[in-house]
Amino acid sequence: MERLAIVGLPNAGKSSLFNALTGGSAVVAPHPFSTTETIVGIAHVPDHRLTALAEMSKSRKVVAATVEFTDLAGLVAGSTSDGLGNRLLAGIREVDAVCLVLRAFIDPNVPGGSDPVEDLTVLELELVLADAATVDNQIDKRRRAAKGGDRQATADVAALEAASKVLQSGTPLWRSGLSEAQRADLRPFFLLTNKSVLAVVNLGEDQLADADAVVAPVAKELGDVAVLGVCVQLEAEAAQLPEAERAELLEGLGLGAGALPRVAQAAYAILGRRTFLTTGDKESRAWTFRAGAKAPECAGVIHSDLQRGFIRAEVIRWDELLTLGSWQAAKEAGKLRVEGKDYEVVDGDVLEIRFNV
Ligand SMILES: Nc1nc2c(ncn2[C@@H]2O[C@H](COP(=O)(O)OP(=O)(O)OP(=O)(O)O)[C@@H](O)[C@H]2O)c(=O)[nH]1
Ligand SMILES: [Mg+2]
């Protein structure tokens, strides 16, 4: 499963966010480095298409797509130079994407700053320095291989040189303007800033009223990167409550369904994942597949037997099915497409797999 690492300065609210998203019980404490061990948790990704289909089918069970988060120790300037720091960077290296937590809340009882742009600067610089060191190290190796006539190595050197230039100027690769192709060439080097990224600005309750003003400077810095303002502490408290009380609390504060659904959705989106759906009276479910996957591979996401014995898929877009009112109605109206092994599944398709093993 693909995974995001929660990265931020000590006391930024990383573990609080992790717990709120995953229902986890990571240690939360008002002193830095309360997290030392990496913890993994699973967050559900709310999907209005799934909700609507489950209602249509009167499904007894509804299963959302999921995304994994890891809670890590706080990152500080100079992290690359000590043991805890190196373990932390290794923890970031092995995930697919990064969720930055930038602190804006002010609380004299919780040491740390409250300027999210400053947090961003410190974090990015640390990650950039680590990447610059990796790139330096790799460039020499790949140059030697290129001299030996290795064509892949020649391409690697070009990609690494472009990365080096960006990193030397202090810019992380995620907002470097390097092309998709260049970033893909760099993937084998597991650079920390060559991942997808999203940022959560951790707001105090008193900042909710002018959240936009607090978030805007961060958004300006980060350009195309998704930036979400979240009062993490409040959301974490709400997440502990039974559903009805939670809704009441969040709506009472004018927060709608709260910010956690948006964080999970943004995380899912930056991982580049796609969703197909299945629906029936027993269960409606959102399944995750990679862009470009064909019908048998998607069938295999449900069960390996369905891939092995794949015959065909019956397919309809979720909104078309919803308009028709039921799978049976869609069938009678002749609206179910019959697709074979070469069909590339599209985000939002509802599938029924015919198979024989
Ligand atoms: N006032 C206020 N306190 C918060 C907020 N979010 C988190 N905190 C508090 O800040 C402290 C640190 O929160 P954690 O979630 O442990 O932070 P962390 O980033 O995991 O910290 P380390 O693991 O030590 O790096 C805790 O006492 C939280 O209750 C917030 O929005 N407002
Ligand atoms: Mg923590």
Question: How would you describe the overall organization of this protein?
Answer:
With 357 residues, this protein is α/β, with parallel strands linked by helices. The protein is 43% helix and 21% strand. It contains 14 helices and twelve strands. It has helices spanning 14-22, 48-57, 83-93, 116-147, 151-168, 180-186, 211-222, 232-240, 243-252, 260-270, 295-302, 304-308, 318-324, 327-332, and strands spanning 3-8, 39-45, 61-63, 65-71, 97-103, 196-202, 226-230, 273-279, 283-290, 310-317, 337-339, 349-355. The strands form three sheets. It has a six-stranded mixed sheet with strand order 2-4-1-5-6-7, sandwiched between helices. Helix 7 links the parallel strand 6 and strand 7. Helix 2 (48-57) runs parallel beside helix 13. The two termini are 27 Å apart. The model has no long low-confidence stretch (mean pLDDT 93). Residues 8, 10-16, 28-30, 32-35, 73-74, 105, 107, 110, 202, 204, 231-233 line the site of guanosine-5'-triphosphate.
* Overall pLDDT metric: 93
What integer value in Å does the Rg equal?
A: 23 Å
Q: Roughly how many Å apart are the termini?
A: 27 Å
- Stretches with pLDDT under 50, minimum 5 residues: none
- Ligand list: guanosine-5'-triphosphate, magnesium ion
Strand content: 15-25%
Give the oligomer, counting copies of the same chain as homo and different chains as hetero: single chain
Helix amount: 40-55%
Spatial ordering of strands, largest sheet: 2-4-1-5-6-7
Backbone shape: globular
Number of strands: 12
